């Protein structure tokens, strides 16, 4: 076997230029696919960290059954009251893998600067719980502060955050006073004074002139209720999401609670759509690159067979069987794939180091601030690429190699 590999390696370098360009094509294809794979891995991780940590949504959310389908039309029917919330906290307390639990109440109404009013949508959350969720972020994107001003506080109920479009529409700035108005759960009109603590950019352009961020106490006081519409749960590991969801659903049902538990990726439809889009882009890039690789290997092997026809006839005359001829060219193709993959690994690492040293920045989807652009090294992608390139190289060489093995010995010896 070693002798065959040595002979195959020697044959490759009989035409150095052709072999070098084939190896270079394989290496560049390998680097292109794995660099794109590393970038998509970074995109997926960043979107996930942004949703779970930076935006404070956690891994799981608990709702009244039917809230997501009918809650927009009549949200008061699907509120979780104090007694139900206490039972939920009892169930969650049994799970050491749960790091943070944060009840929320989403509200809507009118915000006024004293002269004009406009519609607002707000998420009422416990500021300290949101800060704890933010602090558990692992990636750079998850640790980005997405607002200007000061954070909301549990004890200062009147402090609110406004999206920049909403603030501009009402001509409000940091420190400005406003009045929030909304119907209570019993149908009466209520109003609360508010002070602008922070300004932020909406992750959704259509909501840039509508979003507010308020404390849970503010939201409950405005709606005149002690209920919430969801409970957010942060886990110690992403891998525990599905198993914990299943366990919580069973335990909550055992308590007689009619609730549903949703995972972060079920609620983040944007993440799902972006992932599907990049999966399609990656697939097309993969097919294009490896088609080029296969054609390069076929061209190299075919040219080698044409140039070495008399050599093939001599080997056959000396007693080398057809499978030996096929094996020889298969070994050459395998070496092309292996050397090209090694070059591709080097180019991928160089690209990764270049991005790490240059530290480019960009504004990704649903993040409104410039963040570092990264390319991850994904060992699984690289391993699969090596194996696939070697298999493709062997497959690409099989047809011309079999044709060479079937040559008539006399005809091959007389080839000019």
Give the overall average pLDDT.
Answer: 84
Largest sheet: 6 strands, mixed, barrel
Order of helices and strands: HHEHHEEHEEHEEEHEHEHHHHEEHH
Helical percent range?
A: 40-55%
Number of helices: 14
The proportion of strand residues reads 15-25%
Number of strands: 12
Secondary-structure class:
alpha+beta
**Rg, please?**
31 Å
Stretches where pLDDT is under 50 for at least 5 consecutive residues are none
Walk across the major sheet and give the strand order. Answer: 2-3-8-5-7-6
End-to-end separation in angstroms reads: 31 Å
Outline of the structure:
By secondary structure, the chain is α+β, with helices and mostly antiparallel strands. It has helices at about 1-10, 15-55, 65-70, 80-95, 125-135, 165-170, 215-225, 240-255, 265, 270-305, 310-315, 320-360, 380-405, 410-415, and strands at about 60-65, 100-110, 115-125, 145-150, 160-165, 175-185, 190-200, 210-215, 230-235, 260-265, 360, 370.
Task: Describe this protein's structure.
This protein has 416 residues and is an alpha+beta fold. The chain contains 14 helices and 12 strands. 35% of the residues are buried. A 6-stranded mixed beta barrel has the order 2-3-8-5-7-6.
Short key terms for the protein model shown above:
416 residues, two-stranded antiparallel sheet, 6-stranded mixed beta barrel, 14 helices, elongated, alpha+beta, 54% helix
List the helices and strands and how they pair.
Elements: H1 2-12, H2 16-54, E1 60-64, H3 67-70, H4 82-93, E2 98-112, E3 117-125, H5 127-135, E4 147-149, E5 159-163, H6 164-169, E6 177-183, E7 189-200, E8 211-215, H7 216-223, E9 230-235, H8 241-254, E10 259-263, H9 264-267, H10 269-307, H11 309-317, H12 322-358, E11 361-362, E12 371-372, H13 379-405, H14 409-413
Parallel strand pairs: 3-8, 5-7
Antiparallel strand pairs: 1-9, 1-10, 2-3, 2-6, 2-9, 4-7, 5-8, 6-7, 11-12
């Amino acid at each position: 076997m070693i002798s065959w590999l040595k002979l195959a390696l020697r044959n490759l370098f009989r035409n150095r230029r052709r072999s070098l360009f084939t190896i270079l094509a394989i290496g560049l294809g390998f680097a292109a696919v794995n660099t794109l794979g590393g970038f998509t891995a970074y995109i997926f991780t960043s979107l996930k960290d942004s949703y779970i940590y930076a935006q404070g949504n956690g891994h799981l959310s608990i709702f009244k059954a039917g809230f997501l389908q009918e809650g927009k039309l009549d949200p008061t029917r699907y509120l979780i009251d104090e007694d139900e919330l206490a039972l939920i906290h009892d169930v969650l307390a049994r799970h050491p893998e749960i790091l943070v639990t944060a009840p929320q109440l989403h509200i809507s109404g009118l915000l006024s600067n004293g002269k004009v009013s406009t519609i607002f949508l707000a998420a009422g959350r416990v500021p300290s719980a949101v800060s704890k969720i933010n602090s558990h972020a692992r990636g750079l994107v998850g640790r980005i502060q997405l607002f200007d001003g000061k954070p909301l506080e549990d004890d200062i109920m009147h402090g609110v955050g406004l999206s920049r479009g909403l603030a501009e529409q009402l001509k409000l700035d940091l420190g400005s006073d406003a009045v929030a108005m909304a119907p209570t759960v019993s149908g009466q009109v209520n109003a609360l004074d508010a002070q602008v603590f922070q300004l932020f950019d909406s992750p959704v352009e259509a909501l840039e002139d509508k979003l507010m961020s308020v404390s849970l106490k503010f939201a409950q006081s405005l709606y005149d209720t002690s209920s919430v519409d969801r409970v957010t749960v942060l886990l110690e590991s992403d891998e525990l999401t599905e198993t914990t969801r299943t366990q919580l659903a069973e335990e909550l049902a055992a308590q007689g609670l009619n609730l549903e538990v949703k995972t972060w990726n079920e609620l983040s439809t944007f993440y799902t759509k972006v992932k599907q889009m990049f999966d399609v882009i990656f697939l097309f890039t993969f097919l294009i690159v490896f088609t080029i690789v296969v054609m390069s290997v076929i061209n190299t092997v075919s040219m080698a067979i044409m140039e070495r026809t008399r050599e093939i006839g001599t080997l056959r005359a000396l007693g080398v069987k057809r499978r030996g001829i096929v094996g020889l060219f298969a070994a050459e193709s395998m070496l092309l794939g292996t050397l090209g993959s090694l070059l591709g690994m080097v180019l991928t690492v160089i690209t990764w180091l270049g991005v790490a040293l240059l530290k480019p920045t960009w504004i990704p989807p649903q993040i409104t601030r410039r963040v570092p652009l990264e390319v991850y090294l994904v060992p699984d992608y690289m391993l699969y690429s090596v194996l696939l390139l070697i298999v493709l190289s062997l497959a690409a060489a099989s047809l011309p190699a079999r044709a060479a093995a079937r040559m008539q010995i006399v005809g091959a010896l007389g080839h000019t």
